[in-house]
Specification:
- The protein is α/β, with parallel strands linked by helices and about 425 residues long.
- The chain has two domains: about 130 residues, Aspartate Aminotransferase, domain 1; about 240 residues, Type I PLP-dependent aspartate aminotransferase-like (Major domain) (Aspartate Aminotransferase, domain 2), CATH 3.40.640.
- It contains twelve helices and 17 strands.
- It has a seven-stranded mixed β-sheet, with helices on both faces. Strands 1-2-3-15 form a four-stranded mixed β-sheet. The protein has a four-stranded antiparallel β-sheet with strand order 13-14-17-16.
- Strand 8 and strand 9 form a beta hairpin.
- The longest helix is centred in the last third of the chain and has 28 residues.
- It is globular.
């Protein structure tokens, strides 16, 4: 078998486990982390450029997050939303003061944040006396989570197959085609749901002009613009939220991942107008916004909102992108291109992305997969120049190893 095309990520776990087998896990177990590095139970050290799929925004064991969580754990863990939660009110105020939003609903995950966003959009039109307006225009290649509504919104067969009739109300169109969007608008359309950068779909950037066109269309047609910033938010692209690069604001936005820095935390943000239908009893969450999560979320914002933090994200992203351009020039037979925004970068592979990820793993670099034969680089936002240099060196060594494997395959192939 071709060494490049047949490689797999590490060795997959084959030990019988009581855990439902929905993941193809790599046989690595990490027991400690510090900053941008993780260490396995057997003492191997890895540079983490996957960050738990864009979750560990401040790296591992960040002292401010550890302190905030520890202090809160010594006080109270959970009370439920039957009572006021001071940390929740504080984090909501801070998110409102730094975004378009007037109101926030806290969740435990990105999928829940998107569910809340979908419900908020539908409820808005019902409150306006137009309950028939419940459909959302979505985009091919999207990923919005794993709930029944979220997989229906994405519409990808690999996500929906075997789960019975799909939740109705979603109309997917090609990404970037404004005429297709306009043609999809009907009397039942409630809004438009889009990721500013498609993450799972292969780091596909939505051009600012397209986002501005969507905003104008929503204003013209009385639709709600919903942004999925679960992966792009919390500083990942060099702005607090990715839509800021286009100069537009949404009506509703779902966030998660980086805002919790590794603690399960998501949120649905909305304008007062868009959330007019979300009254007492219309939505809820037992754990959402509990004191532990709020302590960590506030601590994450403390760091990300520090003067110069996002500037450093942009600087490190620039250095990494420049270095990757040189890698592409040298090893174009392995990696044909790099693309992305800020520290959300995709390596477009010529070799199979599974083989590239394995080669990177062999060099001690953790990454994440994506569609369109992409390897994602999603490093912690706290990386410094030495981390960038280190990562680029490992990527070059991985490419060289793959090139040599290809050459050996060719040399060892039988000749007619």
């Amino acid at each position: 078998m071709n060494a490049v095309r047949g490689a797999r990520i590490g060795s997959l776990c084959t030990v019988t486990s009581p855990i439902m087998p929905t993941y193809g896990r790599t046989d690595l177990s990490f027991e400690r982390g510090e900053g941008a590095f993780l260490e396995t139970t057997d003492g191997r050290r890895f540079l983490d450029f996957g960050a738990g799929v864009a979750v560990n925004s401040l790296g591992h064991a960040h002292p401010h997050l550890v302190s905030a969580l520890t202090k809160q754990a010594e006080r109270v863990w959970h009370t439920s939303n039957l009572y006021r939660i001071p940390g929740q009110e504080e984090l909501a105020r801070r998110l409102v003061s730094h975004t378009f939003a007037d109101t926030v609903f806290f969740t435990n995950s990105g999928a829940e944040a998107i569910e809340c966003a979908i419900k908020t959009a539908r409820k808005y039109h019902a409150a306006e006396g137009q309950p028939e307006r419940y459909r959302l225009i979505t985009f091919e290649g999207a990923f919005h989570g794993r709930t029944l509504a979220a997989i229906a919104a994405a519409g990808q067969e690999k996500l929906t197959q075997g789960f019975g009739p799909l939740t109705p109300g979603f109309d997917p169109v090609p990404l970037g085609d404004i005429e297709a969007v306009k043609a999809a608008v009907s009397e039942e359309t409630a809004g438009i749901l889009i990721e500013p950068v498609q993450g799972e779909g292969g780091i596909r950037i939505v051009e600012p002009e397209f986002l501005r066109a969507l905003r104008a269309l929503c204003d013209q047609k009385g639709l709600l613009l919903i942004l999925d910033e679960v992966q792009t938010g919390a500083g990942r692209t060099g702005k607090l939220f990715a839509h800021e690069w286009s100069g537009i604001t949404p009506d509703i936005m779902g966030i998660a991942k980086g805002i919790g820095g590794g603690f399960p935390l998501g949120a649905c943000l909305a304008t007062e107008k868009a959330a007019k239908g979300m009254t007492v009893g219309t939505h809820g969450s037992t754990y959402g916004g509990n004191p532990l999560a709020m302590a960590v979320g506030n601590a994450v914002l403390d760091v990300i909102l520090e003067e110069g933090f996002l500037d450093n994200v942009t600087q490190m992203a620039g250095r990494l992108s420049q270095g990757l351009a040189m890698v592409v020039d040298t090893y174009g037979d392995i990696i044909e291109d790099s693309r992305g925004s800020g520290l959300m970068i995709g390596l477009k592979c010529r070799a199979e992305n599974t083989a590239v990820r394995q080669a990177l793993l062999d060099q001690g670099l953790l990454t994440a997969p994506a569609g369109d034969n992409i390897v994602r680089l999603l490093p912690p936002l706290i990386i410094e120049e030495n981390h960038v240099t280190d990562a680029l060196g490992r990527i070059e060594k991985a490419c060289l190893a793959l090139r040599e494997a290809q050459a050996n395959d060719i040399a060892g192939a039988p000749h007619d």
